[in-house]
Amino acid sequence: MAAQCDNLSGYLQQSDQGSNSERSTDSPIPGSEEDLSGPHPLPDPEWTEERFRVDRKKLEVMLLAATEGRVNGGEDFFQKIMDDTQTQIAWPSKLKIGAKSKKDPHIKVCGKRENVREAKDRIMSVLDTKSNRVTLKMDVSHTEHSHVIGKGGNNIKRVMEETGCHIHFPDSNRNNQAEKSNQVSIAGQPGGVE
Hints:
By secondary structure, the chain is an alpha+beta fold. It is 30% helix and 19% strand. The protein has 2 domains: 21-127, 2-Layer Sandwich (Ribosomal Protein S8, Chain: A, domain 1), CATH 3.30.1370; 134-193, Ribosomal Protein S8, Chain: A, domain 1. The chain has helices spanning 56-67, 74-85, 113-127, 145-149, 154-163, 190-193; strands spanning 21-24, 47-53, 88-90, 106-112, 134-139, 166-168, 183-188. It has a 4-stranded antiparallel β-sheet with strand order 1-2-4-3. Helix 1 packs across helix 2. Keywords: Repeat, RNA-binding.
């Protein structure tokens, strides 16, 4: 289902899974084609909307700050940008904090083309996704996995915290030695992965 900008609150009414960035000049705002109740004003050719992904963890931190009543929460952040750029911004205000989903949510900005570009730049300067994330796959003998992971996962947790990377070991519960995989994957920013 398509996301709709709510002109009153700027909240995302519904979200869908889409590409990283979409631009549309035939926005249902203003003068929706679905409204057949009379003559429509010609849409402003300068009017546009853009949908783009933002970093889930950064948005969660911002929304959590808002629920705790701290300044610079999600509502304040987006409202200031809307006021400064004269745009409407829709965001997933009810994003479940700490959800298992790793999918980055979408933000939608509606307004005049130049204002939308400025609003997007300001949002992305704070909530930019990990676009330069890399994954390194390397072979580590499955007999060494438990030593690298450490007791209770302490070694690997420490390494992941220090580097900001996610390290994945294949399933070690296989009974047949031939089925066990040696491939370990490390995902994160290039500096951390090295």
